[in-house]
Design a protein that fits this description.
Blueprint (H helix, E strand, L loop, with lengths): L1 E9 L4 H9 L4 E5 L6 E6 L3 H12 L4 E11 L4
Antiparallel strand pairs: 1-3, 1-4, 2-3
């Protein structure tokens, strides 16, 4: 099961909308920063295909400016 974390930057002025968009998605946990326009996103998907599909969906969000993976772990590889 892939577990990944990302730093996510919203488009200008839509951090709350980005958090709502991400929170509504399955396999996503959202941790917004209190004092910056940045969000930590942790995804925990059942398999590689689901993770790949989720990443494609994330990249299409209009409220998202950029997304950078900070950590990845796949228990299936061990």
């Amino acid at each position: 099961m892939p577990i990944l974390s990302y730093l996510v930057l919203p488009q200008a002025g839509v951090k709350d909308q980005l958090c709502a968009d991400l929170s509504a998605m399955q396999y996503c946990e959202v941790i917004p920063a209190d004092n910056q326009e940045v969000v930590v996103l942790v995804t925990d998907t059942p398999d590689e295909k689901t993770e790949s599909n989720l990443q494609k969906t994330l990249k299409k969000l209009p409220s998202l400016q950029s997304i950078s993976m900070t950590f990845g772990h796949n228990a299936e590889l061990e």
